[in-house]
């Protein structure tokens, strides 16, 4: 059995693990509902999720790839739902509205471009470049935590289950992109996979607690 014959199973594994990762937002929103407030939390992760899923959804439509369309349809609906819950319980409603307005304007610009672009190949390339750029920004976000973990020599601040799930998601999408010869999918997910492995390696190198982290907590307290 060659790798190409595994394309469909890998695609379905990628879809399932990604949707499971999306569903983790339910736990966050549940806490907002229980506390009746979002406190100082930022809506940016949900807003960024709407933007990323929306652009990947448009890319999937342009490329006529039902796998990308399906997973990002689910992601888009969930991220919009999470943003709505956040808006209900936040005291920073004006900030959320500004972010949502920016997203709507951006999508209107994209839809306007899509409606006038006659060359589908150019459309796929440009949407793919935009979508993969958003993914790269997302997977690069944990870099600041990596430097902090190395500095304090403790992995206490790293969420092991989420990192492990990110590894599976990135690995499955990388394999799917490689088989499908789609650099826009394979490229950022290869980087995401490497970063997830780097974070997991820190759990082996450093314990979850250390003198440095305890000292840091004491200083904050």
Structural class: mainly alpha
Number of helices: 10
Gyration radius, in Å: 19 Å
- Unreliable spans: 210-221
Instruction: Please state roughly what percent of the residues sit in beta strands, choosing from under 5%, 5-15%, 15-25%, 25-35%, 35-45% or over 45%.
Output: under 5%
Task: Give a quick rundown of the structure.
The chain has about 220 residues and is mostly helical.
Question: What would your notes on this structure say?
Answer:
Keywords: Cell membrane, Golgi apparatus, Membrane, Repeat, Sugar transport, Transmembrane, Transmembrane helix, Transport. It is found in: Cell membrane; Golgi apparatus membrane. This protein has 221 residues and is mainly α. It has one domain. The protein has 10 helices and no strands. Helix 2 runs parallel beside helix 4 and helix 8 packs antiparallel against helix 9. It is globular and about 50 Å long. The C terminus is likely disordered.
SSE diagram, text form:
Blueprint: H1 7-23, H2 25-35, H3 44-63, H4 66-89, H5 93-116, H6 120-140, H7 143-152, H8 160-179, H9 183-205, H10 211-220
Helix pairs in contact: 1-4, 1-8, 2-4, 3-4, 3-5, 3-6, 6-9, 8-9
InterPro entries: SWEET, SWEET_rpt
GO molecular function: sugar transmembrane transporter activity
Pfam families: MtN3_slv
């Amino acid at each position: 059995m060659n790798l190409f014959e595994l394309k469909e199973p890998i695609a379905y594994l990628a879809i399932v693990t990604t949707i499971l990762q999306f569903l983790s937002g339910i736990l966050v929103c549940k806490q907002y509902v229980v506390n009746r407030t979002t406190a100082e939390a930022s809506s940016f992760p949900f807003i960024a999720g709407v933007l990323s899923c929306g652009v990947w959804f448009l890319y999937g439509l342009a490329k006529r790839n039902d796998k990308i369309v399906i997973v990002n349809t689910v992601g888009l609906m969930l991220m919009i739902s999470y943003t709505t819950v956040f808006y209900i319980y936040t005291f920073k409603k004006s900030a959320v509205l500004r972010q949502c307005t920016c997203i709507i304007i951006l999508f209107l610009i994209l839809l306007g471009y899509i409606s006038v672009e006659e060359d589908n190949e150019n459309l796929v390339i440009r949407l793919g470049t935009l979508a993969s750029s958003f993914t790269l920004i997302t997977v690069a976000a944990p870099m600041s935590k990596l430097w902090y973990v190395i500095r304090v020599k403790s992995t206490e601040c790293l969420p092991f289950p989420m990192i492990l799930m990110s590894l599976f998601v990135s690995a499955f999408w990388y394999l799917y992109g490689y088989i499908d010869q789609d650099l826009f999918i394979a490229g950022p997910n290869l980087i995401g996979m490497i970063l997830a492995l780097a974070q997991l390696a820190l759990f082996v190198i450093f314990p979850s607690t250390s003198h440095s982290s305890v000292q840091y907590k004491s200083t904050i307290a």
